[in-house]
Amino acid sequence: MSPRSITKPAVGTAAALLLVTGSGLLAGCGTQTRSDAGGTSVAAAQAAVQPGRLQQPMQTTDKDWKPVADALGRTGTLMKGTVYHIALPRKDLKVTTEGIAIKPGLSLGGYANFAKYHDGTMLMGDLVITEDELPKVTDALQAAGIEQTALHKHLLQQSPAVWWTHVHAMGDPVKLAQGLKSALDATAIPPASPPLPTQPPIALDTAGIDKALGRKGTADGGIYKFTVARKQAVNDGTHVLPAALGLTTGINFQPLGGNKAAINGDFVMTAPEVQKVIQALRKGNIDIVELHNHALTDQPRLFYLHFWATADGVTLAKALRPALDATAPAPAS
Q1: Helix (H) or strand (E) holding 124
Q2: Taking the model in full, what pTM does it have?
Q3: What are the tens digits of pLDDT across the range 246-275?
Q4: Cα(304)–Cα(265) distance, integer angstroms
Q5: Sheet strand arrangement including 218-220
């Protein structure tokens, strides 16, 4: 998935949200129990902070994350001073669905995100792995004390078979990076490559797509992308979670020629929004691919819905707009 935009919630908003969802979900003071590799379970992390207090992510610099970059052998991007984002696209795979060759930026973009809190560093990520790689990656993650919080697909039918697994851990940032590196070593995910000096042209009516969706997209490696945060704050019972950790709606357009596009991505929704989004997408003849969670303890409980369609780009954008509006999106900047 693509680098995510960030919305930094206010402490008061997050605290109010916690009161609504119930402070009884928080355990009392305790000591974190970390594995030798530096991972901490969700439950242990929740037990490490006094009830009723939500931790904000700490402000950091690129220098703070150099040990993580060195451990992974990959340089990331610091987003708004809080989330260190490392892209893990599967540029090595040649994936097709419905006869269409999928560009990595459409739906093959894995990532690892790190954020520092007072009780440790949080890792949240999404790894794109082949079916053959999946058992080895699972074993490596478990050995490193890194939890898997979701396993799913982004495409209805594909060749070769590809899976997406979400990961979570709390602990020492270098040990987390080393544990993640052991999982990456079980895959053929290629080394990081420098960004393109110039973006290739997007053969779509991007102005029409922007108008239909009510916000401006971004060209990224031949894909036209939208990343939309939610209005309200999100937490895990202990930590305020920046949207840049991966809590956003992603909408991607891959040009197919003649202003036609393939679309893929996922909507982030609360439970009352799920059926509204499904109904809006189907009204626009957009296929539903997968409905699932990415995390174990998010508050409010968030669901993610992947979709697929091919048609005129502007027509697809108009069909996507009612679904987007049903998800309480943050205003366009």
Answers
A1: strand 120-130
A2: 0.83
A3: 999 999 999 999 999 999 999 999 999 999
A4: 10
A5: 218-220, 223-229, 248-257, 260-269, 303-312, 287-292
